Automatic annotation (TrEMBL):
<dbReference type="InterPro" id="IPR006638">
    <property type="entry name" value="Elp3/MiaA/NifB-like_rSAM"/>
</dbReference>
<keyword id="KW-0004">4Fe-4S</keyword>
<dbReference type="GO" id="GO:0003824">
    <property type="term" value="F:catalytic activity"/>
</dbReference>
<dbReference type="InterPro" id="IPR032432">
    <property type="entry name" value="Radical_SAM_C"/>
</dbReference>
<protein>
    <submittedName>
        <fullName>TIGR01212 family radical SAM protein</fullName>
    </submittedName>
</protein>
<dbReference type="InterPro" id="IPR007197">
    <property type="entry name" value="rSAM"/>
</dbReference>
<keyword id="KW-0411">Iron-sulfur</keyword>
<dbReference type="InterPro" id="IPR058240">
    <property type="entry name" value="rSAM_sf"/>
</dbReference>
<dbReference type="InterPro" id="IPR023404">
    <property type="entry name" value="rSAM_horseshoe"/>
</dbReference>
<dbReference type="GO" id="GO:0046872">
    <property type="term" value="F:metal ion binding"/>
</dbReference>
<keyword id="KW-0408">Iron</keyword>
<keyword id="KW-0949">S-adenosyl-L-methionine</keyword>
<dbReference type="Pfam" id="PF16199">
    <property type="entry name" value="Radical_SAM_C"/>
</dbReference>
<feature type="domain" description="Radical SAM core">
    <location>
        <begin position="19"/>
        <end position="251"/>
    </location>
</feature>
<dbReference type="InterPro" id="IPR039661">
    <property type="entry name" value="ELP3"/>
</dbReference>
<dbReference type="GO" id="GO:0051539">
    <property type="term" value="F:4 iron, 4 sulfur cluster binding"/>
</dbReference>
<dbReference type="Pfam" id="PF04055">
    <property type="entry name" value="Radical_SAM"/>
</dbReference>
Length: 308
């Protein structure tokens, strides 16, 4: 708790440095997967907010990324991050080949796998369990919202019950789970977003990613709602994120507080490419309010203990 009060949040960077004893960098990998709501097994067109690149435009291969980064960070370790599209949506033999190929690289010290809650089939879970016993690993679930009406309207193709099952199965196998939430989805209030946060934080997760809802030119949502803006200002977004940070349990690692979109693809919010400005504003706001991750969570826990 002392460390969080000093740093304001428990970042994944802090956790990884504690675990590995050095700075760790994720290398985004494009493995050639698709999604069940792109190929017709669940739907077509993909999630309405996704670009044609499947939210992974910056992904490339391991060797090229290490060559680019080794001069900037000469003494770091690397994690293979399977990011684009749904990285458990393939026959298990193909998944095994791709995951172990990444892990066999001499400079890769762990793996992170992003997927959908409805794409953790029994054989895939067994493969993940096998990898987890031998290597550092976490699995990322792109939940986005706990509200089924929102999931339906965004053509996501799964329901909250799929998430509940996925988290339960991963937890049974001791697999660390990171959950994605999108802030500013059409039709959702800030209370809806806070409800999503509280729900996932109660499900024994390892980490959380908060994404700003960006409208990108290649997304179906832009075609449908070209004038939609998720937040009117940086200040509005920052205020919500700070209130969310206060509700996140102190042991949950924070992996993201905004979003990365290539500026050439971005439509709105027009300021959202200013990632450093947004993050600095969040950090400054935490300091100015003299608050930190888990401040409201601890308050809630203390109140429950007093009344219990």
């Amino acid at each position: 708790m002392k460390l969080i009060k000093e740093n304001r949040i428990y970042s994944i960077g802090t956790y990884l440095k504690e675990h590995f004893g050095k700075k760790m960098v994720k290398l985004s990998i494009e493995a050639g997967f698709t999604c069940p709501n792109r190929d017709g097994s669940v739907g077509y067109g993909g999630c309405k907010f996704c670009s044609s690149g499947g939210s992974g435009e910056l992904a490339s291969n391991i060797r090229d990324q290490i060559e680019l980064l080794k001069n900037k960070w000469p003494n770091v370790g690397y994690l293979a991050y399977f990011q684009s599209h749904t990285n458990t949506y393939a026959p298990v033999d193909i998944l095994r080949e791709k995951f172990y190929a990444a892990l066999s690289h001499p400079e890769i010290e762990g793996i992170a796998i992003a997927t959908r809650p409805d794409c953790l089939y029994d054989d895939v879970l067994e493969l993940l369990s096998e990898i987890n016993k031998e290597h550092f690993m976490w699995v990322e679930l792109g939940l986005q919202s706990i509200h089924n009406a929102t999931l339906d309207s965004m053509n996501i193709g799964y329901q909250l019950s799929d998430y509940d099952r996925a988290v339960c199965e991963l937890r049974k196998r001791g697999i660390k789970t990171v959950v994605h939430l999108i802030l500013g989805l059409p039709g959702e209030t800030q209370d809806d977003m806070l409800s999503s946060l509280d729900y996932v934080c109660s499900s024994s997760i390892f980490g959380i990613k908060l994404h700003l809802m960006n409208i990108v030119r290649s997304s179906p949502l832009y075609q449908e709602m070209p004038d939609y803006v998720s937040f009117n200002s940086i200040e509005e977004y920052v205020d919500l994120v700070i209130r969310m940070i206060e509700r996140i349990p102190p042991h949950v690692t924070i992996h993201r507080l905004t979003g990365d979109v290539p500026r050439m693809l971005l439509v709105s919010p027009e300021w959202s490419y200013k990632k450093r400005t947004i993050l600095n504003s969040i950090n400054n706001g935490l300091r100015d309010r003299d608050t930190y991750q888990g401040a409201k969570f601890a308050e809630k826990t203390n109140n429950q203990n007093q009344t219990g």
